[in-house]
Design brief:
Layout: H1 3-21, H2 23-26, H3 30-54, H4 58-89, H5 92-97, H6 102-107, H7 110-124, H8 128-131, H9 138-191, H10 194-197, H11 199-209
């Protein structure tokens, strides 16, 4: 939530608490009871949506970045062995496939990096036995294919998480707007008669109804009556 939204939500919770504490004083009025119950339900929805909104992709992105770095290290290891073998055998095609620079790999888009790795994997398989002398074992070659698959699978997961977060932000705003409107258009009017019937209770409602700006030092005035 933004600071403004958080201040509004704190007010909503204060209003909800007011009606909970003073339930016995408003229990004889079905309209107020029903509307206060709707507010409580909206607060529950807002809490749930704020949890989804708060989910960060930072952890997932860090995991993906670490996987990318590890994958690149293995690519360079296999490529180095292939280059050495190509130089020994005079295999120009293999030499060109293995001509990989670390800085270029790091700049590549995910899709291009995966394509490059799969091409290296396909080229390394036929000479896997010969690469052993250059410190490249079958497990290193197999890891190229495994890592490429796992890395590809991670991207949609992170995108989907971002989509859910964006949607939750939109839904959260809608629920906040609905709760604000409920208080302003319904509860404020329903509580107005208590200014005469029970001035103390009405004053308590106005205090609960006040939006406090937590980022400011001034004490806000209660909302205007009527």
């Amino acid at each position: 939530m933004t600071r403004v939204e958080l201040n509004q939500f704190n007010m909503m919770q204060s209003v909800d608490q007011f009606f909970t504490i003073n339930h016995s004083l408003i229990s004889s009025n079905p309209a107020i009871v029903s509307t206060a119950g709707k507010l409580k339900s909206l607060i529950g929805d807002i809490n749930a949506l704020s949890q989804v909104q708060a989910v960060s992709t930072k952890t997932e992105s860090t995991i993906k970045a670490n996987a990318r770095n590890s994958m690149i290290d293995n690519v360079l290891k296999v490529a180095a062995g292939m280059s050495a073998h190509a130089a020994t055998t005079g295999d120009t095609r293999l030499k060109m496939t293995a001509d990989i620079v670390s800085s270029d790999l790091k700049k590549m888009r995910d899709s291009d990096l995966v394509i490059k790795i799969r091409a290296l994997y396909d080229a390394a398989l036929p000479v896997a036995t010969e690469l052993a002398v250059w410190g490249v074992v079958q497990a290193d070659i197999d890891k190229l294919n495994t890592d490429a698959g796992q890395y590809t699978a991670q991207s949609p997961d992170i995108r989907n998480l971002k989509v859910k977060t964006v949607q939750a932000t939109s839904d959260l705003k809608a629920k906040l707007d609905e709760a604000n409107a409920l208080i302003k258009n319904n509860l404020d009017a329903m509580m107005l008669p208590f200014k005469n019937l029970n001035p103390s209770l009405h004053g308590e409602y106005l205090n609960a109804r006040a939006i406090i700006n937590r980022a400011a030092t001034q004490t806000p005035a209660p909302p205007k009556e009527g």
